DNA sequence: AACGACTACAACCGCTCTGCC
DNA sequence: GGGCAGAGCGGTTGTAGTCGT
């Protein structure tokens, strides 16, 4: 995609007055990266002004988060990653940032795009051919999502010292804590799959 | 070669959430 | 508690590239 990006540089830009819009140029990327290096990735309005980019803070944030940030993986979503996305989407719905949080180096925007252009069609096709990937009923899937909502509520509650998590069979904070993981540490996947299987095929 | 349809993805928009005063 | 600004999220749009005719 980098090739495509280079080609498109400047093609949309300067069409509208006031703020720059459209594709980012290499020069803009460089300026933005420089300012973020100095000030950190916070206060995007200030960053936009300081960099002299004539872009809104939101636009700068998006560019940084999705393309300029270190350790970003681009393209080539592996089968393993695809499978994870499918499973997580089944569990979480369109909560792309949460899904992206479980895929090191991937961004919510990339996953969202990948879903819309690849996986949603794939699922449609599978449904049309009568095949359910996991054999989960709609009701069971609803249960899974509700369960996750409970997880989030309980997670807030635990900060108040309450021990109300008896419903959950795994440690919620560990489940959502990505801070100490190496790239594509899949231990949590096993935990998740156990939960998934348990809900879809209760014994 | 030319053209239109389709695809993929970068970027924008509007809304919500969060923190500060 | 209310208002405001900044940050973050998900949905949608715009456009370049690709494919089929």
UniProtKB/TrEMBL annotation:
CDD domains: SANT. Coiled coil: none annotated. SMART domains: SANT. One of its GO terms (cellular component) is nucleus. GO terms for molecular function: transcription cis-regulatory region binding. Residues 16-68, 69-119 form the Myb-like domain. It comes from the Eukaryota. Residues 16-72, 73-123 form the HTH myb-type domain. InterPro entries: Homeodomain-like_sf, Myb_dom, Myb_TF_plants, SANT/Myb. Pfam families: Myb_DNA-binding. Keywords: DNA-binding, Nucleus, Repeat. GO terms for biological process: cell differentiation; regulation of DNA-templated transcription. It is found in: Nucleus. Its main location: nucleus. PANTHER family: MYB TRANSCRIPTION FACTOR (PTHR47998:SF18), TRANSCRIPTION FACTOR MYB51-LIKE ISOFORM X1 (PTHR47998). This is Uncharacterized protein. It comes from Vitis vinifera (Grape).
């Amino acid at each position: 995609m980098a090739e495509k990006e280079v080609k498109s540089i400047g093609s949309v830009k300067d069409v509208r007055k006031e703020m720059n819009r459209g594709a980012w140029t290499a020069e803009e990327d460089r300026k933005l990266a420089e300012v973020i290096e100095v000030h950190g990735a916070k206060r995007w309005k200030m960053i936009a002004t300081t960099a002299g980019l004539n872009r809104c803070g939101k636009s700068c944030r998006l560019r940084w988060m999705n393309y300029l940030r270190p350790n970003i993986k681009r393209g080539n979503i592996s089968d393993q990653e695809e499978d994870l996305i499918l499973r997580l989407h089944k569990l979480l719905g369109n909560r792309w940032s949460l899904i992206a949080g479980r895929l090191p180096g991937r961004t919510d925007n990339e996953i969202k795009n990948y879903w819309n252009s690849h996986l949603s069609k794939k699922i449609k096709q599978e449904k049309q051919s009568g095949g359910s990937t996991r054999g989960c009923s709609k009701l069971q899937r609803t249960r899974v999502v509700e369960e996750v909502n409970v997880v989030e509520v309980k997670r807030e509650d635990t900060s108040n010292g309450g021990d109300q998590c008896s419903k959950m069979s795994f440690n919620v904070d560990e489940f959502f804590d990505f801070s100490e993981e190496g790239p594509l540490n899949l231990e949590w996947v096993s935990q998740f799959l156990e939960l998934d299987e348990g809900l879809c095929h209760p014994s």
